[in-house]
């Protein structure tokens, strides 16, 4: 009798399992127990932390990310922030490069061995207007003069052609054209150039101060 009851209960249990299996939809996920496994919870926590860190890094710009990585490196491996600061002693701007490699007049020898610094200076030189010069006459009593070519804004405004070519003078009346043999030393080499400039009477007097 006991054997028959056991057989009946096993049969009923099997039927219930089959009925439950028929009620499960193909896309339905298996039910989990009420208590989450410790390893599964730890993996989910790590995954969530990784998502948060990734989102935090993406929201930063490149410089902020760099500072964070440097800070984390120092925190984990030790050291000082001064060890990561680069020296700016040898830094140069485009203007510094142009000043170092500038030529008042470029010739074939100057263009023979061109590096990127010289090419940059030559590119700036090509944009200058070389019909009239702008003069610095502040040291005329010492017989020392400075000349440079005009740039685009000065050509548009008429500086050096329709107004006095002295950079400290804007006189427009009584202008006179002069041709000057400009002798100068450039990169240790003495050179000469014949330049033209337009000056007012007062600045013309300064230009010819030692020739009267």
Furnish the topology, listing elements before pairings.
Blueprint: H1 2-23, H2 38-59, H3 62-77, H4 94-101, H5 116-126, E1 129-136, E2 146-150, H6 152-157, E3 176-186, E4 189-199, H7 201-207
Antiparallel strand pairs: 1-2, 3-4
Quick recap:
The protein has 212 residues and is an alpha+beta fold.
What does this entry look like structurally?
By secondary structure, the protein is α+β, with helices and mostly antiparallel strands. The chain is built from 7 helices and 4 strands. The protein has helices spanning 2-23, 38-59, 62-77, 94-101, 116-126, 152-157, 201-207, and strands at 129-136, 146-150, 176-186, 189-199. The strands form 2 sheets. The chain has a two-stranded antiparallel sheet with strand order 1-2. Strands 3-4 form a two-stranded antiparallel sheet. Helix 4 crosses helix 5. The longest helix has 22 residues, at 2-23. The chain is rod-shaped and about 135 Å long. The protein starts with a helix and ends in a 5-residue tail after the last helix. InterPro entries: Folate-sensitive_fs_Fra10Ac1 (IPR019129), Histidine_acid_phosphatase (IPR050645). This is FRA10A associated CGG repeat 1. GO terms for molecular function: phosphatase activity. Pfam families: Fra10Ac1 (PF09725).
